[in-house]
Amino acid sequence: MEAKTIIDTVLVFDQEKTAQLVQAHLDQGTDALTILDQALIAAMDEVGRRFSKGIFFVPEMLMAAEAMRAGLEVLRPHLVRADIKAKGTIIIGTVKGDIHDIGKNLVSMMLECAGFNVIDLGVDVSKDKFLAAAEKYRAQIIALSALLSTTMAQMEAVVAAVRSRGSGLKTLVGGAPVTASFADEIGADGYSPDAAGAVVVARSLIA
Ligand code: B12
């Protein structure tokens, strides 16, 4: 797969062209996960680099995110894996103060494709909202996403509240600044650096 062309269309914020190229690669037989990793996620990494260097600003990040989303919509049906059906309900959301949702949406999509019942609470979700939803839907797992080092602390608050209830409800954390050692430190039950790994960890937490 020539990933560079898709990366380029994301970097010039072209939603239509990104979607077309993703479709073209699928038509040529490229695996959906390869397109996701080597083109769409790679493009967002470059967007992050340009933001850090002051080449891109928030509007550019947002437009690139929209282009990535257009590509993701084309990929969505191809990420379905009928062979790995699992059971269980997972509440997912981006923590309070944080509005990044691309990674969270990917994790949500992969979990759904793996056969979980996923309740997506969106972004900027408070601790109380996570807990209320877990109770309402009798969830087995609360999955938390954070993309800012400042909002990682929110994860700690949710995990602590879940642990103090001692109800068997599990927590799964992730997001670019989150590490396995941070997850350990705050007492989360599971961590994964990416969406595919989130499925594996979620299954092990429920088994
Ligand atoms: C796009 C983007 C935005 C968009 C978000 C649009 C959207 N709808 O999401 C907008 C423009 C809104 C934005 C705003 C801001 N952003 Co921003 N943003 C990014 C950018 C470029 C890409 C993020 C992304 O989508 N990556 C692609 C996805 C697929 O990757 P991911 O989110 O990491 O998810 C993967 C894994 O982490 C994991 N994962 C994610 N969630 C979960 C959850 C679970 C349970 C599990 C298991 C796994 C998991 O799986 C995913 C798939 O493999 C990053 C740079 C970067 N490379 O991360 C900066 C970045 C995150 N942003 C940053 C900053 C500073 C901001 C702002 C504060 C800027 C400002 N001055 O206003 C605001 C904050 C707004 C807020 N309150 O949240 C910094 C954060 C620095 C830090 N460590 O704190 C970064 C790192 C840029 C940088 N290099 O400085 N941003």
Give a brief rundown of this model.
The protein is of the alpha/beta class and 207 residues long.
The residue ranges in which pLDDT falls below 50 over 5 or more consecutive positions are 82-86
CATH superfamily of the largest domain: Cobalamin-binding domain
What would you report as the Rg, rounded to the nearest angstrom? 17 Å
Say which molecules are bound, naming each kind only once: cobalamin
Structural class: alpha/beta
Q: How would you describe the shape? A: globular
The helix content is: 55-70%
Q: What's the helix-strand series?
A: HHHHEHEHEHEHEH
Figure out the total of helices.
9
Let me know the number of strands. Answer: 5
Beta-strand content bin:
5-15%
Total domain modules: 2
* CATH fold field value of the largest domain: Rossmann fold
Give the mean pLDDT: 91
- CATH class type of the largest domain: Alpha Beta
| CATH architecture descriptor text of the largest domain | 3-Layer(aba) Sandwich
Major sheet description: 5 strands, parallel
Distance between the termini: 36 Å
Q: How would you write the strand order of the largest sheet?
A: 2-1-3-4-5
